[in-house]
Amino acid sequence: MVLLSNERHYRVWIHRRLGPWCRPTGSPAPLSCEIGCGEGSWILVCRLLVPTQVSLLSMEEDIDTRKINNSFLRDHSYATEADIISTVEFNHTGELLATGDKGGRVVIFQREQESKNQVHRRGEYNVYSTFQSHEPEFDYLKSLEIEEKINKIRWLPQQNAAYFLLSTNDKTVKLWKVSERDKRPEGYNLKDEEGRLRDPSTITTLRVPVLRPMDLMVEATPRRVFANAHTYHINSISVNSDYETYMSADDLRINLWNFEITNQSFNIVDIKPANMEELTEVITAAEFHPHHCNTFVYSSSKGTIRLCDMRTSALCDRHTKFFEEPEDPSNRSFFSEIISSISDVKFSHSGRYIMTRDYLTVKVWDLNMENRPIETYQVHDYLRSKLCSLYENDCIFDKFECVWNGSDSVIMTGSYNNFFRMFDRNTKRDVTLEASRENSKPRAILKPRKVCVGGKRRKDEISVDSLDFSKKILHTAWHPSENIIAVAATNNLYIFQDKVN
């Protein structure tokens, strides 16, 4: 690996992978939704705007604002870096959608229930709960700031009336319980109605406390805090299929946790060399198998994927399978190692395939074939001639995510200029769509976009030289069973649904 090919390359790589990050500033921004329905392929259903004006929610019917933590609803006319969405995740049923941002906040949206009058209006998502998950911290031993940015959110399957989710920043993972409360106890013997202790001498009779109805309140409480286990920045968390354990991965190690134990974790992968000057690769993403609790994969900055089996040994320093595509020597360049770094890895719902995303492509691997991917999709191959300028502005280090649809037949990933791409594995057709505040209105139908590389440009095409690299789709999510997608475009969240028949 030509990691130390020049001083700037090494400096940028260390900053991106192992260096401290600047703490984003700014106050929490307000929320707004725009609802629309109509005919077409993909229809704008909901949009979270940052910022917005005084109006909280613009809908046909007023939303019960009692569900919303009003301390987060402030009037701003600008968006700060703290408002940038850093992760998006549907829960296992698709009824809830959680987003995290660089300000350490988690916003949960709940899907509207179907009504008799409006049968096809179930694509709408309204604000359900908002809470501050992480706060900025300072590591006094290393003199480093730990930013509050939410790196990942993972839902746990619902076992009772409450919801549970994991959220993590660079160092600490938290388990949150989100529950509803519409009754309050009254009639305590030792306390008055305001909760103050009564004088025991004044208590002459005993009474049975009763539950009285109250306004619906959604509470988010931290149930577990898993800290002090990672030296480097956490880039992935994944819940195991046994629902008793989960793993967290940083740049050089992967730890296994039990949900009931917060002060101890088991190190299952450690790729840190004895001499850090010999470091040639870092871990970029990791995920458990959806059905086999002993199996997991992790990807590296060298473009390789390792499948590990925890039954072989306590420390999975030897992989079970090693997936790597041989590089064509004729295509070798200064940027080869950077663009081959895998930014995301996802098991298919069936568990048979693995999907990986590098800078230019999405690849699908069969677990039974290690030497090459069975499918390769070009996301934005027209940027191959722009790698030099993308390196200068650091865009070449952007980490794009990828997702499967519920049936594993379509994959989706993001690009620049607020474009996101969909690839149909059966028909081999692909489409480029745009999530833009300027072009998206309520009931708007998304129109396919095309990028012109050279020559004459058609009316509906956009030139590759006109792409805005500051607008990028890094984070996307797909409803587990329906054609509803969530796309995070910097500080805006767009929710689209497929045509309603």
Automatic annotation (TrEMBL):
Keyword terms, alphabetized: Repeat, WD repeat
Coiled coil: none
Entry keyword annotation includes Oxidoreductase: no
Superkingdom: Eukaryota
Keyword Repeat: yes
Cellular-component GO terms for this entry: protein phosphatase type 2A complex
MF GO annotations: protein phosphatase regulator activity
Entry-linked InterPro entries: PP2A_PR55 (IPR000009), PP2A_PR55_CS (IPR018067), WD40/YVTN_repeat-like_dom_sf (IPR015943), WD40_repeat_dom_sf (IPR036322), WD40_rpt (IPR001680)
UniProt record similarity statement: Belongs to the phosphatase 2A regulatory subunit B family.
Protein name: Serine/threonine-protein phosphatase 2A 55 kDa regulatory subunit B
Organism: Chrysochloris asiatica (Cape golden mole)
Lineage, uppermost ranks: Eukaryota, Metazoa, Chordata, Craniata, Vertebrata
